[in-house]
Amino acid sequence: MKVAIQFEAQLRQVAGTGNAEIDLPESSNLLAALEQFTSSASNELRDRLFTQEGTLQASVIVFVNDQPVPSQSANVHVLNAGDMILLLPPISGG
Amino acid sequence: MTKSLSDLSDAERARYEWQMWTPDVGELGQQKLKAASVLVSRLGGVGGTVAYYLAAAGIGKLVLAHAGNVKPSDLNRQLLMTTDWLGKPRIESAERRLQQLNPNVEIHTTGENLSEGNAAALVGEVDVVVDAAPLFDERFAMNRAAVGQEKPLVECAMYDLDAQLTTIIPGQTPCLSCIYPDDPPTWKREFPVFGAVSGMVAAMAAVEVIKLITGIGEPIAGKMLWVNLRTMDFRKLPIARRSDCPICAGVNDSACR
Prior knowledge:
Strand order of the largest sheet of chain A: 2-1-5-3-4
Number of domains of chain B: 1
Oligomer: heterodimer
Largest sheet of chain A: 5 strands, mixed
Radius of gyration of chain B: 17 Å
Order of helices and strands of chain A: EHEHHEEE
Structural class of chain A: alpha+beta
Shape of chain A: globular
Order of helices and strands of chain B: HHEHEHEHEHEEHHEE
CATH architecture of chain A: Roll
Number of helices of chain B: 8
Distance between the termini of chain A: 40 Å
Number of helices of chain A: 3
CATH topology of chain B: Rossmann fold
CATH class of chain A: Alpha Beta
Strand content of chain B: 15-25%
Structural class of chain B: alpha/beta
CATH superfamily of chain B: NAD(P)-binding Rossmann-like Domain
Helix content of chain B: 25-40%
Radius of gyration of chain A: 12 Å
Strand content of chain A: 15-25%
């Protein structure tokens, strides 16, 4: 199944794109989707998305289809074909 | 508001006439603005522009916090800083500009940035708080003080051509620590910015303050506006409270304002 990912702000710069699409096995969860996408991405993108323990960084705000998903739920949030993952990094420019 | 409403002078009616034409504002709304006090933390591209619009709108008292001296690299976006004030305190430049714009506004200044040491006292001086600091430490200190004193907090920030805005109502909405439970490890103090981008989110933050004080419209509470000016996408996204939030979990609806 195909799932879209949208990166904003610093993540867009690090990912080198604002939009990506990944092909996943059916019933994949959110954490697995991001692990798959970043498996071929830069270390910097992985470091911005994941902790050293392999969980999602809590300071990255994650939405699926514009609904928030807590970082600790990423490994149980099952995705569906056509879902759109939105990743908002922390910004504090004033 | 903690201050009682007072009549407008003829000069004030003349100055604010066009905004008093806004439906549901009128003279009473202007009196509310005159009676209100607002803290703005940092007066950079975002906070300085928020303060400028609030002074223009006739907020009664502005409490302003910003350390350091004016540098050349401030001047592409920090509209309260002027070339003739290079090397001199930013807070003085800001106060001078705001008084030139509207001498009716009472301005209290501190030449310090917001910190855990001064946040409670500064928040205690005002009705509404605007957070526009470039460092999360300062934002978290502001959040803790605003939630602790049950004061509404307008959170506004930008990076590159992206910006975000939300209004925190203690007891009702997520607070900053709900949104960012950990201190973001990757944020750097220096960031790409055009003044037009910081000014855009600042103008919206000023509108949020005006809405909170006058009661018009609905503040963006419990939602986050994310703006991407590269694509002109404006998204209003729901955000959720954390039941385990160390800052706001114990604050309930009835305690708010």
